[in-house]
Specification:
single chain, 693 residues, alpha+beta, Cathepsin B, Chain A, Jelly Rolls, six-stranded antiparallel β-sheet, five-stranded antiparallel β-sheet, 20 helices, 22% strand
Length: 693
């Protein structure tokens, strides 16, 4: 219950504008300005109790207490490492990011790419921070997290060995913004160890709120160079990755390229060369050294045949980990490019380069919305989102001349990195895109009979998967899923279009049209007569009476496999029909109740296809619809939590209890009355009374 309330509170906060970059949510409820003021008043240096200078902030395995990497580790403030420390020295640049002992090159190459866009950098790294006036050892950084921005506070105690930073460091030994940013990101993900291993796109999205585009070279389009070049000109952030055939560790090969490593991609140019043109790209190793030594590298002879003005603009002659290389060699040495496109709500170079973004937060819940991939029979129960593409691109890539709409669909599974040190794994995730049917029916039969028009290439065990499509104008539905059914996780689905598009969640309605039996003017005593010892003069039924009568009646129904109804469920039945608040039912009310129960019995039997006396949790959705309830995914998930067993089955009593409870809630809502917006207003006392029913 508390978890549900927290989600609702978060949604309401977002509607009030909390979670924007200008008004970020305070991570762990820590207010930077308030904490800073407290430290100034008490003349103390800030010590963060939520991410202390202790083993718990380092990790449990690779950086655990027995790890060689943490032996001799000392937490020090910058002033204890270097005299006259500076937050940023002469502007932040990619040279400020040099990898340390932590295997987080994926993060650091993303930080280096971030420095290429000053506006974006200033959103993540507030620049009005320093070690001078009013310094109290507290800093803060802002990150995008699944649709909202959060402000993360840290103290400035950093892990060192022999008075040198153990993890990321700047080329300038007195500069500390990158080390503090790394610490804040470690806090956001639970520990430094949680940052080991990953793909750069994850951090790029968290730094910008942008949407990623992934290109694996084995399936890359012919115009990949043009896509990269256009993205860099639009000030998108671009990274690239290498891999080795055996996949073991970071290995430096003869070309000085590091395998199983992540790089920043900082330039893409076509330049005149020997009467023709050559495509070259510039890549940067976050180590700050070990750069490409082949054609077009620093000092390579190819530069001698290039126009001096072009050479002056592009050439870099120093061992800083950055070098130009032929695009043809790039395709051999690397295997993946990731592009982070910036969103409408965040900084871009100008209006022309802004994209339109729609995003949804949802969940895969076992027995409800975790239907697995398309080969799984419960695929149809996965969340579904409709996209209306109404305007084609102004300048579609590829120049086909067709009225096509560029769409990037990004799917992110939440909070999995935080679970990584304890053995938590990323699920394999993906999605399918279908043409939306004219009748709007998207049940089990639709997905059996219709083929998708687009999909992710394969299900991948990444935090996020994304892909670019070009689709004709029209209506589509996106179905995100894990590969295996019943895998539970929260997710964020984002749809990124070059032109405006409409998006909505399918089935996001709450309404009921329940069965109401028509009663004769004289009481129907059939149910009472079926009891073992009927009492025709009985005027009222308590919960104990109901339990006895209904259990006895059910025992005469061989097709219903039930041991009876509990007193607790009988109290729910009384709450539904007891309008005079006596805590009992009259004979007439009892007969109404029995007719309702007979109606729900028939629905249960229809759903119990194998006659085991239970129904599959996924079939509960159809059963609810047969009973007249159209409910959104959030309510469906709560029903699963409350009424479905660990084996993802619903027995007869829980089914009846669910139907009765839903009827009661809808009835209460209607009785209390709503305002013009369809909302009710309750005092605390009224809310507690209603909740205790």
């Amino acid at each position: 219950m508390a978890g549900i309330a927290s989600k609702l509170a978060r949604d309401r906060a977002n509607t009030l504008g909390i979670g924007t970059n200008e008004n970020p949510r305070k991570y762990l409820n820590q207010d930077f300005e308030a904490l800073r003021a407290q430290c100034l008043a008490s003349k103390t240096l800030f010590e963060d109790p939520t991410f202390p200078a202790a083993q718990s902030s380092l990790g449990v395995k690779d950086l655990g207490p027995n790890s060689e990497k943490v032996q001799g580790l000392v937490w020090k403030r910058p002033s204890d490492i270097k005299p006259n420390p500076q937050f940023i020295n002469e502007g932040a640049s990619r040279a400020d990011v040099r990898q340390g002992a932590l295997g987080d090159c994926w993060l650091l190459c993303s930080i280096a790419s971030l420095t290429l866009n000053t506006e974006c950098l200033c959103r993540v790294v507030p620049i009005d921070q320093h070690f001078d006036t009013d310094y109290v050892g507290i800093f803060h950084f802002k990150f995008w997290q699944y649709g909202e921005w959060v402000d993360v506070v840290v103290d400035d105690r950093l892990p060192t060995k022999k008075s040198k930073l153990l993890f990321v460091k700047s080329t300038s030994a007195s500069e500390f913004w990158s080390a503090l940013l790394e610490k804040a990101y470690a806090k956001l993900n639970g520990s430094y160890e949680a940052l080991k291993g990953g793909l750069p796109l994850e951090a790029l999205e968290d730094f910008t709120g942008g949407v990623g585009d992934q290109y694996y070279f084995d399936k890359a389009p012919d115009n990949l160079f043009q896509i990269i070049q256009k993205s860099l000109r639009q000030r998108s952030l671009v990274t690239c990755c290498t891999q080795s055939s055996d996949g073991t560790g970071e290995i430096v090969v003869s070309t000085n390229v590091v395998k199983n490593h992540a790089y920043s991609l900082t330039g893409a140019e076509e330049i005149p060369y020997r009467g023709d043109t050559v495509q070259i790209v510039r890549v940067r190793n976050p180590w700050g050294y070990k750069e490409w030594n082949g054609a077009w590298s620093d000092g390579a002879p190819e530069w001698d045949e290039v126009d001096p003005n072009v050479r002056a603009d592009l050439r870099v002659d120093c061992d800083d980990g950055e070098a130009w290389m032929p695009f043809s060699s790039f395709l051999v040495e690397f295997y993946l490019v990731e592009i982070c496109h910036l969103c409408l709500d965040h900084v871009c170079s100008n209006d022309k380069h802004k994209w339109c973004l729609t995003e949804y937060n949802g969940s895969w819940t076992a027995g409800c919305t975790a239907g697995g991939c398309k080969s799984n029979p419960n695929f149809w129960t996965n969340p579904q989102f409709q996209i209306k593409l109404e305007e084609p691109d102004e300048d579609p890539i590829g120049g086909t001349g067709r009225s096509l709409c560029t769409v990037i669909v990004s799917l992110i599974q939440k909070e999995r990195r935080r679970k990584k040190p304890e053995g938590g794994e990323l699920f394999s995730i993906g999605y399918y895109v279908y043409k939306y049917p004219s009748n709007g029916q998207l049940g089990k039969d639709f997905f059996k009979k219709n083929k998708e028009v687009a999909r992710t290439d394969i299900y991948r065990s990444h935090r996020g998967v994304s892909k670019r499509f070009q689709l004709p104008v029209g209506d589509y539905v996106v179905v995100p899923s894990t590969y295996y059914s019943s895998e539970e996780a929260d997710f964020c689905l984002r749809v990124f279009t070059e032109r405006k598009a409409e998006t909505l969640e399918i089935g996001n309605m709450v309404e009921a049209n329940v069965y109401e039996p028509l009663m004769n003017s004289s009481p129907d005593t059939e149910a009472s007569m079926a009891a073992e010892e009927p009492d025709e003069e009985k005027a009222e039924y308590t919960a104990e009476d109901l339990r006895s009568y209904i259990t006895n009646l059910l025992s005469k129904r061989d097709e219903i496999k039930s041991d009876g109804i509990s007193v607790k469920t009988c109290k729910e039945m009384i709450n539904l029909l007891d309008v005079d608040n006596t805590g009992t039912l009259s004979n007439e009310e009892f007969n109404i109740l029995w007719k309702k129960l007979e109606h729900y019995m028939e629905i249960f039997l229809e759903s119990d296809t194998n006659s085991f006396g239970t129904i599959d949790a996924h079939e509960m959705r159809i059963a609810l619809q047969r009973a007249g309830f159209n409910l959104n995914n959030r309510i469906q998930e709560v029903i699963v939590q409350r009424y479905v067993s660990g084996e993802l089955m619903v027995n007869f009593e829980d089914f009846i209890a669910c139907m009765i409870r839903l009827e009661t809630l809808f009835k209460m809502f209607n009785i209390l009355g709503t305002d013009k917006d369809g909302n009710i207003s309750l005092s605390l006392s009224e809310w507690i009374c209603a909740g205790l029913v």
